[in-house]
């Protein structure tokens, strides 16, 4: 069976830059242009550009949007001021995670207010179907899938904002972390959001698909002296792993609830009636026996997804959900779930392809950028 | 020494072999091709075979691991492992610049030469790589 893959509006840019393309969530995406480690370090030390156009972009217009989102999302958004961005989860009725998303409250230059929800590429169809079930209750809400008519670029790293701010009519350094605004780059409309998935400062922008190439080229040009590089999904994954951020399909699935995943901050209870609230309230007082932890295997060999974790008695008490070499620490790092009662043990072992090696349990994240406040998510 | 990649033979799984004869005994020094190393990218770990191990051509001899993936290393020949390059796993970054000399992985004393026929010349191997790239 042949599966036809979608291309992002930046496909030609990637190919011309010599990127290695791989199938990911129905798209052909760049995994790396030169080397994952070099792209990773460019982001940590200077700045890197990522094409993240595969992420789903869903827009909610009309009266009742806030009420709909308040039912859909674990986190309260009804009180979000204009320009605010929030990380939230979408759960099923059992409290299992359907997706993790960013929601922004925005106003167009013509003063139309709306909410934008960015969802994982692999969950876009599932979430569209899930939201459509809710729409009859909110007859004045219009849901539009903007994914294919727009592009999304992440610019991440300590020099990202300072170097590229001149390109935009609204200076993005005036945004606080988790704020967004609609502005333009040389009269091409863009949504700029001070968010990211790398643990670095920076921004993500959404533009019209037809403007994406020019906007990417402008960013590369203005960042040339500062050392901006293009980075692929490989570096995006090692960066988010160092930053301890969960990835849907690995740390988050429909079998995992937000509390087990350590994402209680993304759930607002106070009597709210969102989907999954009842199950999560029950879980708050009867927590799952597993917890999400950081793992530092005492070996040079990276632990990978699915590798079992054992306690001193030889019982399997967990497993790895993501693992790689950390380019910053120059050592293997991993995230996994272990039984709560074993989560402080110093005698745990990961089985790496037949060999059990000692592993340390550590607090996430593995990497925190200088000057980052500890409460920041 | 300086190995000429055009004089080596190659397995379809990207290992090279340098076959030589010393006092009537044939040995293969083996490694991973420059093409494969570039494809693997960002190597972080290598698992070497044990000296004394007997292998058949096509057997898994060890592992090469990059940031993103683990790739098995197959023996291109049949014989006994008589030497391994113990410094290599600690200096994997040198594999990129020097895959044929510093990048040797193991030396195998051949006990059979029936598999040698299935190994490719440099020209044939290059053709395979350009078709897969």
CATH topology of chain B: OB fold (Dihydrolipoamide Acetyltransferase, E2P)
Q: How large is the share of residues in beta strands of chain B?
A: 35-45%
Under CATH at level 1, the class of chain B stands as Mainly Beta
CATH architecture of chain B: Beta Barrel
Distance between the termini of chain A: 41 Å
Strand arrangement, major sheet of chain A: 11-12-13-10-4-14
**CATH-defined superfamily of the largest domain in chain A:** Probable tRNA modification gtpase trme, domain 1
Write a short abstract of this structure.
Chain A has 377 residues and is an alpha+beta fold. Chain A has helices at 11-16, 36-45, 65-72, 124-134, 160-164, 212-222, 233-242, 277-285; strands at residues 6-7, 20-24, 27-32, 48-51, 56-61, 85-91, 97-107, 113-119, 142-145, 150-156, 180-185, 188-193, 202-208, 229-230, 290-297, 308-310, 316-326, 331-339, 348-352, 355-362.
Keywords, separated by commas or semicolons:
heterodimer; A: 377 residues; alpha+beta; Gyrase A, domain 2; Alpha-Beta Plaits; Elongation Factor Tu (Ef-tu), domain 3; 3 domains; six-stranded antiparallel barrel; 8 helices; 33% strand; globular; B: 133 residues; OB fold (Dihydrolipoamide Acetyltransferase, E2P); six-stranded antiparallel beta sheet; 3 helices
């Amino acid at each position: 069976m042949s599966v036809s893959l979608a291309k992002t509006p930046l496909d030609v840019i990637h190919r011309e830059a010599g990127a290695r393309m791989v199938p990911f969530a129905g798209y052909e995406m760049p995994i790396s242009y030169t080397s994952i480690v070099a792209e990773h370090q460019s982001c940590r030390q200077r700045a890197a550009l990522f094409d993240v156009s595969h992420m789903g972009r869903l827009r909610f217009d009309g009266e009742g949007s806030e009420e709909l989102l308040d039912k859909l999302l674990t986190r309260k958004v009804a009180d979000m001021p204009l320009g605010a961005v929030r990380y939230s989860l979408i759960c099923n009725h059992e409290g299992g995670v359907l997706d993790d998303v960013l929601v922004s409250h925005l106003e167009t230059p013509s003063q139309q207010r709306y909410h934008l929800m960015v969802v994982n590429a692999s969950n876009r169809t599932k979430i569209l179907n899930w939201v459509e079930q809710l729409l009859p209750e909110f007859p004045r809400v219009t849901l539009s899938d903007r994914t294919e008519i727009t592009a999304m670029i992440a610019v991440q790293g300590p020099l990202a904002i300072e170097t590229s701010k001149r390109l935009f009519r609204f200076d993005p350094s005036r945004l606080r972390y988790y704020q967004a605004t609609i502005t333009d780059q040389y009269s091409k409309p863009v949504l700029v959001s001070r968010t990211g998935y790398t643990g670095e400062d920076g921004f993500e922008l959404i533009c019209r698909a037809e403007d994406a190439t020019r906007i990417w080229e402008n960013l590369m040009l203005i960042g040339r002296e500062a050392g901006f590089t293009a980075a692929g999904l490989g570096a995006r994954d090692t960066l988010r792993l160092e930053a301890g951020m969960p990835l849907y399909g690995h740390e988050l699935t429909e079998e995992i609830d937000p509390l087990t995943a350590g994402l209680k901050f993304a759930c607002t209870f106070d009597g709210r009636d969102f989907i999954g609230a009842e199950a999560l309230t029950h879980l708050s007082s009867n927590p799952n026996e597993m917890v999400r932890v950081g793992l530092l295997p005492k070996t040079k060999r990276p632990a990978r997804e699915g590798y079992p974790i054992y306690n001193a008695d030889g019982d399997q008490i967990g497993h790895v959900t993501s693992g790689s070499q950390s380019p910053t620490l120059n050592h293997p790092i991993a995230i996994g779930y272990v039984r709560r009662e074993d989560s402080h043990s110093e005698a745990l072992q990961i089985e790496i392809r037949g060999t059990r090696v000692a592993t340390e349990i550590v607090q996430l994240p593995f990497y925190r950028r200088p000057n980052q406040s500890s409460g920041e998510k | 020494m300086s190995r000429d990649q055009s004089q080596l033979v190659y397995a379809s799984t990207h290992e090279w072999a340098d076959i030589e004869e010393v006092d009537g005994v044939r040995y293969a020094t083996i490694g991973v091709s420059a093409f494969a190393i570039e494809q693997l990218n960002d190597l972080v770990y290598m698992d070497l075979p044990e000296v004394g191990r007997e292998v058949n051509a096509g057997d898994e001899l060890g592992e090469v691991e990059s940031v993103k993936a683990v790739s098995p290393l197959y023996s291109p020949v049949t014989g006994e492992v008589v030497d391994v390059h113990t410094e290599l796993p600690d200096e994997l970054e040198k594999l990129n610049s020097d895959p044929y000399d510093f990048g040797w992985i193991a030396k195998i004393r051949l006990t059979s030469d029936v598999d040698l026929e299935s190994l490719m010349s440099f020209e044939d191997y290059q053709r395979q790589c350009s078709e897969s790239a």
